[in-house]
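Support request, priority: normal
Reporter: lab tech (M.K.)
Component: structure prediction queue

Hi team, I submitted a job for Nitroreductase from Mesorhizobium shonense yesterday, and the status page still shows it as pending. I've pasted the exact input below so you can check whether something in the sequence is tripping the parser. The sequence length should be 234 residues. Please let me know if I need to resubmit or if it's stuck on your end.
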Amino acid sequence: MLEKNSRIAEDAAIVDEAIVSRRSVRAFLPDMVDDETIRAILTVAARAPSGTNMQPWRVYVTKGEVKQRISDAILNSGIRAEKAEWDEYRYYPDQFFEPYLSRRRANGFGLYGAIGIGRREVDKMRAQHDRNFVFFDAPVGMIFTVDRRLNKGSWIDYGMFLQNIMVAARGRGLHTCPQAAFAPYHRQIRPVLDIPDEEVVVCGMALGYEDHSKPENEFRTDRAPLEDWVTFAE
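Reply from support: The job had stalled in the queue. We restarted it manually and it finished. Here are the results:
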């Protein structure tokens, strides 16, 4: 029994470390990730649950020239992020309210503060945001889509799939950054990847090895204590 409990504790520690160490890395090394590793991550991630096993995910894995073409199409579009039209789905509410407003502000101020950008340095903020569109220099950029005929349940399933990718990546010494910023630029992305009209661009994701020398990767977000959001009922 002691041996079994010890094994359970060891397994829990491994899983917990993969989950807790997952974070949005915003600067990557150029070191390439081989296709075998990417396939292994996606294969494991596809064990995510989905309603009646529909498996609603569709993934476009890009590297090299194709990844660069996505970046160029967005950055040369002339459409600033604050003017980009969220016409496929809405990620954020039109008006933020508490406690979400405070959390959003803390995240933004914390990130920009880590890289020395002041609250009124709008051009520098825009430049940092634009780094989304080069996948923060990661060697692998993924674009995720879902069939627009599916309903909200499939989007819930999709979230679990995305989390599986990020956790599986951590188990292999890799980091990620999930990026909703790509969604409003579906018109620029579609022709590069030949994405059919019936697919909604959900998000992008950078995948690679963390660049530990960059200050943006020293930023850590907080989490609200359990007491703020958990109710135990017996």
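The longest strand covers residues 199-208. Residues 99 and 127 are 28 Å apart (CA to CA). Let us know if anything else looks off. Ticket resolved.
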